[in-house]
Design brief:
mainly alpha; 13 helices; globular; disordered C terminus
Length: 315
């Protein structure tokens, strides 16, 4: 992971880091779906979400404690920002996704997750009167077509035949929660160390998840972990919780919630190729078609517009 500046933000002048901030989170989140589905019988969703955030907190705390003490007053002033972003982006989103993955099909989960950019654009309009430009709408539409090409496996009539379950509703609610989180990230307090604030969000999320963890142990117990389970938990704690969260927050700061949210369309694309790499599944033509549409729409919506030439002085 790149070393942050003294304020914990990615250098905006570095194009490579800006691209990494857009590409890395959906890659890590795609792995989160794969791992969450793979270990669903080994650990309960309540235990997984709590341990995930606890481990992420322990990873960050040694590097952030000094800044957290310095910014304690700012945390209190922005306590409602901390509470709502921790609750929506860390607690509800992850808990509802893992609960949904217990019963829903992966196709449905990926389809709902890909609705996040659309929800972000709608919520930005409703809450902040932030209008989406024609350029962003076109890019959003093109990339969404790429998602649908992958989810439907190139057979569009398959979208009509999808069956929805209780797990689907859980995933959809989690998706809406993450869209709210993305919108509220725009209120990131100025002058506060970025990585330490993420650490503080992890702390709030861990406290909120403690009753869920205790209830999970009381009702479902705690099965012994295998080596694969331990590796899966470590991945979602470090990769999906720490690294992806930091880089997504940086992408929102640089591009805004609507454009940064478009990168979430890369999640099913990365998921398809990760399944081919780790599970031996084939990559078909519709995967390549989806990749071209997703990347094309994302590039069109986020590519910097050329400034109009200044008018010549008539005098």
């Amino acid at each position: 992971m790149a070393t942050p500046s003294s304020r914990g933000s990615l250098p905006q002048s570095t194009a490579a880091l800006a691209l990494l901030a857009v590409m890395l989170p959906p890659l890590l989140w795609a792995g989160n779906f794969v791992v969450g589905r793979a270990i669903r019988h080994d650990i309960t969703p309540g235990a997984l979400v709590f341990i995930r955030h606890l481990l992420a907190l322990l990873c960050l705390l040694p590097f952030c404690w000094r800044h957290m003490r310095r910014d304690a007053g700012a945390y209190w002033r922005h306590r409602w920002f901390l509470l709502r972003t921790s609750l929506t982006g860390m607690v509800l989103f992850n808990l509802l996704i893992y609960l949904g993955l217990q019963s829903t099909a992966a196709t449905n989960a990926l389809l709902f997750n890909s609705a996040i950019p659309v929800l972000i654009a709608l919520l930005a309009l409703v809450f902040f009167r932030e209008r989406t430009s024609a350029r962003q709408l076109l890019g959003l539409g093109v990339s969404l077509c790429g998602v649908l090409a992958i989810v439907s496996r190139g057979e569009w009539q398959a979208l009509v035949q999808l069956q929805f379950s209780h797990g689907d509703l859980l995933v959809l609610t989690g998706v809406a929660s993450f869209a709210l989180y993305s919108i509220w990230l725009r209120d990131f307090p100025a002058g506060v160390h970025r990585i330490s604030l993420v650490c503080m969000q992890m702390l709030v999320a861990t406290v909120l998840l403690l009753p869920v963890f205790v209830w999970s142990l009381a009702t479902q117990g705690f099965a012994p972990w295998s080596g694969a389970t331990a590796l899966g938990v470590a991945y979602v704690a470090v990769g999906s919780s720490v690294v992806a969260t930091l880089f997504y927050a940086a992408a929102v700061r640089r591009f805004g919630p609507v454009q940064a949210g478009l990168s979430i369309h890369l999640t099913p694309l990365f998921g398809a190729f990760m399944s081919a790499l780790f599970l031996g599944e084939r990559v078909y033509r519709y995967h390549w078609l989806g990749m071209l549409l997703i990347l094309g729409g994302l590039a069109y919506a986020t590519w910097p517009r050329r400034a109009a030439p200044a008018p010549e002085n008539a005098g």
